[in-house]
């Protein structure tokens, strides 16, 4: 802001920035998702497959929780970089997403070559299946 400015103008701009920065499409911290043997608890950041705990890195968990929070919605690698990494393909390679998806599949899928939870939509990106 350019000086001089009024306190009313400053308060209005702060409210606008806070409104835009509120993550409405993300899971709330109290949300636990359950999908036929796969449980994702956002509060404790735990994932279980058939009752057994699965160790995920922080980004793997964030990516899985983001995808599971919008089942059946397809996200491109660029969109996933933007939402999960707060980055873009200008600054980070889209193959980062591919590597993380592969690692998640190895940890949560019975057969990573025939994924049940995270599927590839060829030429577009990835989606979480219910």
CATH superfamily: Winged helix-like DNA-binding domain superfamily/Winged helix DNA-binding domain
N- to C-terminal distance: 47 Å
Strand content: 15-25%
Over all CA atoms, what is the radius of gyration? 18 Å
Q: Which range best describes the helical content: under 10%, 10-25%, 25-40%, 40-55%, 55-70% or over 70%?
A: 25-40%
Describe this structure in words.
The structure is a single chain. By secondary structure, the protein is α+β, with helices and mostly antiparallel strands. The chain has a single domain (25-128), classed as Winged helix-like DNA-binding domain superfamily/Winged helix DNA-binding domain (Arc Repressor Mutant, subunit A, Orthogonal Bundle). Helices cover 37% and strands 19% of the residues. It is built from 4 helices and 7 strands; from the N terminus they run αββββαβααββ. It has helices spanning 7-21, 58-68, 77-84, 95-108, and strands spanning 32-35, 38-41, 46-49, 52-54, 75-76, 118-121, 125-128. It has a 4-stranded antiparallel β-sheet with strand order 1-2-3-4, covered by helices on one side. β6 (118-121) and β7 form a beta hairpin. The mean pLDDT is 87.
Give the topology.
Elements: H1 7-21, E1 32-35, E2 38-41, E3 46-49, E4 52-54, H2 58-68, E5 75-76, H3 77-84, H4 95-108, E6 118-121, E7 125-128
Antiparallel strand pairs: 1-2, 2-3, 3-4, 5-7, 6-7
Helix pairs in contact: 2-4
Q: What are its keywords?
A:
four-stranded antiparallel beta sheet, Arc Repressor Mutant, subunit A, alpha+beta, 4 helices, three-stranded antiparallel beta sheet, 130 residues, single chain
């Amino acid at each position: 802001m350019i000086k001089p400015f009024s306190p009313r103008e400053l308060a209005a701009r702060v409210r606008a920035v806070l409104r835009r920065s509120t993550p409405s499409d993300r899971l709330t911290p109290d949300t636990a998702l359950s999908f036929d043997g796969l449980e994702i608890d956002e509060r404790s950041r735990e994932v279980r497959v058939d009752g057994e705990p699965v160790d995920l890195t922080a980004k793997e968990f964030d990516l899985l929780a983001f995808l599971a929070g919008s089942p059946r919605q397809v996200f491109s690698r660029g969109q996933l970089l933007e939402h999960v990494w707060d980055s873009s393909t200008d600054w980070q390679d889209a193959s980062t997403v591919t590597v993380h998806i592969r690692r998640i599949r190895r940890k949560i899928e019975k057969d990573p070559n025939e994924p049940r939870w995270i599927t590839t939509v060829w030429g577009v990106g990835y989606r979480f299946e219910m």
